[in-house]
Design a protein that fits this description.
The protein is an alpha+beta fold and 542 residues long. Helices cover 22% and strands 24% of the residues. α8 packs across α11.
Amino acid sequence: MVANGLSPHQSPSEITDAKKAKLDGAVIPPSRVVHIRSLPGEAGETDIVQLGMSFGKMTNVLVLKQKNQAFLEFQDESSAVAMVAYFQANPAQVRLKPVFVQFSNHKELKTDASHAFQNHNAQAALQAAHSVMGSDEQSTILRVIVDNAFYPVSLEILHQLFIKFGKVLKIITFTKNNTFQALIQMSDAISAAAAKTSLDGQNIYNGCNTLKIDYSKLSNLNVKYNNDKSRDFTRPDLPTGDLNLDAMSLGGSSGVLMSPMPTYHHGLTPPQITTIGALPAQQTAVDFQEVREEPTIIWTQGLAPGYGIPGLPMGAMSAMNAMGAFGIPHTALGAARIGLPLTAAMGSAVILVSNLDEEMVTPDALFTLFGVYGDVHRVKVLFNKKDNALIQMADPHQAQLAITYLDKARVWGKQIRVAQSKHQLVQMPKEGQSDAGLTKDYVNSPLHRFKRPGSKNCQNIFPPSQVLHLSNIPAHVTEDNLTTWFSEHGAVKAFKFFPKDRKMALIQMNTVEEAIHALIAMHNYQMGESCHLRVSFSKSTI
């Protein structure tokens, strides 16, 4: 019995070959749509566009990664005819792998909203191709500046982002004027243009670490060492270099940048960032104006509705889905809504706080203080050791952020210690068992600062400071009211309303410790029938 011209007794490989032979021999009438198959798994829209750009204007492209196939639509059928004819005589290759090119049975490509991510990538690749075709300058090197850099950016993260638009040949990272920058050499001009089109102006993490991308005037990057600062992906044999050198060396012929001299390295493996958390305020690349007003939601710019790169449109989607779409593990993005580093090591979401004042500590006080750095789910003050408490944050990344900012802070006259706990969750008391109110569940609390994806709170996470940011101030509350209330928790040194928005103000306490006490006492302070004060730490001065 023979079905569709194939014997049921043939092996799977024979059947596959037979199908290909049948497809190759089939007479398919000309169409504006070209069908490309047997693609390598890493092939993307830019690879397909490069195959067709020499034959005419392209209007759409669709890559089916699971099937290793793609479709390329031209504006004119004659362009598709020219492409098929050329590659029948000259077998095509994509990323050094032979591929098959033939007419498609489809007369046009139609994509719907469910393919929004693919649609965006397609338009980026087409736009890049058209810009390259209409320009004499075809640079393959991009200069990347990371603005508003709150969190570390590694060479590996950049590679994961840019490889989605084509082959990355070389990367050099360096710091200039306290700003993290990189030079990235793509394999071709279309990949570079597509990456620039898609990533320029986007955020690596929610609300911060913004990519500013321009073309470099350099013609080539000369990488001498493969380490944390520079990488030549075409030369895995390069040495890692001298451990003691850490400088940029500009040399070589005109238009060539030499790679930075190596620092401490980890060979070709991704570097481990051992200190998790934001950079100090003075290292922030852009001193953006502090503007916060709850419950306004900020919608960060995205690649397309519902899609994006890490930390992108947080109102329309979760950053986890966005990063997953770019091939970055979802497990690294549990706290993407507050912009924590991908490289943060996964661990427990529970932290242990010790050296607390037994007379002052309460679950509510810890909920308010630690809630500045994440959403606190549960708090347990230990019954037999009340100077210790366990705090369960929403995820491990928020726990790391709280550890970074609050470890060794002075609270109630004592320097507290904050460390990751071996526990994975905080247990509530069993039914009927009383613990004198020392354990509380806050999962459904309306006071979480980060429950709204993309909240402006995500952009304003700072270490404890003398200056506090106040918001949600009703019109009837005066400066005297606020200074009087806050003076109950320490000496008030200065105060000012925001000039253009009297709902917000800055107040400066005498010490950081007094500011911490004031925040614990005054955050969510009721100032009217349905009006509660919002208090957070500020990096501003008065």
